[in-house]
Every structure is written in C-alpha cells, then in structure tokens.
Amino acid sequence: MDETPIKTELTDLDKIIGGLYPGEILLIGSRPTIGKSSLIRTLIKKVTIEKGIKSLLFSLEIPKPLFQMSIVVSLSGISTWKILLQKLEEEELKIYNMFLSQVEDLPIIIDDTENNNINDICNMSRKLVKEEGIEIIYLDYLGLITINEENPSIEDFCTEVMTKLKGLARELNIPIVLACQVSRTPEHISMRGICHSSIIDNSDVILLLDRKRNYSENPIFYFAHLDIVKNNYGDTGGFKLRFIPESGCFENLPLPMKKIMDCR
C-alpha cells in the first residue's frame, strides 16, 4: 500500500493491519452489548480527539447528546452512572463541565438521524469531505441504515449498502469504520456469524470482538479478544485489549498484564 495509514494507537492492531488506510472499509463485528460502539468510541478518542483528525460519525443507535456525554466520560474518567444519577462531587462536576464545554470544539461532526438512508449518508459524506475536510468516517451501525426499497431482503439490503459504502470510501479516498452486529456459535463468534457475503467481500479488514470478565487474585478487570479475520493487504491474527468500564473505552494491555493473559 502506498497510502499512509492513520495509526489507531492500539499497538497490536497497528502491528497487524498497519492502521486505517484511505479508501478502505474496516468492519467491527460483535454480538449485541459486547463493545462495537465502545471500540468505535476508542478509535474516536485516539484518532479524532488525540490526533485532531477531522471525523464524521453517523451515530444511528445513540443520540448525539448521549454520545457527547460518552466522550466526556472517556476523557475525564468520571463514571457514567454518577453523571446519569447526578451524584457528582463538586470537583467532579467542575471537571465534567470543563470537558463538556470543549466537546463542541472537537474535530468531529455527529449525525444522529434515525433510520438514515444510505443515499443520504453518501451525499452528506461527500458534502462534508469537500466543505469540512473530513478525513475519516465512522458508522454505528450497519443494521440501522435504510435503503429506498420497502421490506428488502437481507441480500438486497447488504448488497446495496456495502457496495455504496465501498464505492464511497474509494471515491473520497478516506477510511470508513463500520460497526456490524454478528451472531455466534455456542463457542465463539466467527465470520460465519456475518449475515451476508457482500459484507465480507466489500470489507478490506474485518475485526471480530469478544469481551470477557476475568477473576483472579488481583482486582477484577475486563478484557476483550480482538480477532483480525480478514486483512486484504497483510496478516491476520488475534490479541487482547483491556476494557475500562469507567471510560467505556478499550486500551492496550499493560505489559505485565499482557504476559499474564498470553499464558491463558
């Protein structure tokens, strides 16, 4: 690949895929509530916020105010439940308000239109890339996009949406990160859980995410296993990430913890 990728700053992911390449679709697949939105939020934190890369998020599942709150949580470390239950201490409230006031100035445009049509998504993307210099697009998630056909079959829906998104990524020459809900076998999730071949065919990189809770002599911590099951231009493989419930984001495993987890 001649294009320079955008590094995700998730060390093991960057080692395998190199980063997010212009013109490519990176698909994040997981079962419900496992963390596909959290992984997108992690990428937004590391790519959009920390690097200042202009981004567009189509948040089809989470309303814009709640997503903005989740960004504040990821930056401040203040727990979501304390915010929602209005149980913030005075100092926490000051910190929360400080970050909240900065959210509107972050280099991200959030569109939370429900049942957003694929044609509208493509048209808005073209407009904002031209006018605002958008460099990456996030879509959360595939199953909530609509097409013009009434009651389409899964085959027609997947073919139309994925073909148009792949064409859009290449036309605009920017990466698109797309979340997708997958089913699982009794043992694990796999590409067999992706509902249609056009999703697989039109994705350049596919990540499958599974999350578990680990009990040990140390305090309880959460981790996720991320499998790169398709990579058009490189290797595949798997590794673990740490999930931070307070921020709702994933992080690289600290080296001592990584050594422990690699033994499991």
Q: Please, could you describe this protein's structure?
A:
This protein is α/β, with parallel strands linked by helices. It has a single domain (11-262), classed as Rossmann fold, CATH 3.40.50.300. The protein has nine helices and nine strands. It has helices spanning 11-17, 36-49, 64-76, 80-84, 90-103, 118-132, 154-172, 197-202, 255-262; strands spanning 25-30, 55-59, 108-111, 136-140, 176-181, 205-214, 221-231, 237-244, 249-252. A nine-stranded mixed sheet has the order 3-2-4-5-1-6-7-8-9, sandwiched between helices. Strand 8 and strand 9 form a beta hairpin. Helix 6 runs parallel beside helix 7 (154-172). The longest helix has 19 residues, at 154-172. 38% of the residues are buried. Mean pLDDT is 87; it is low at 215-219.
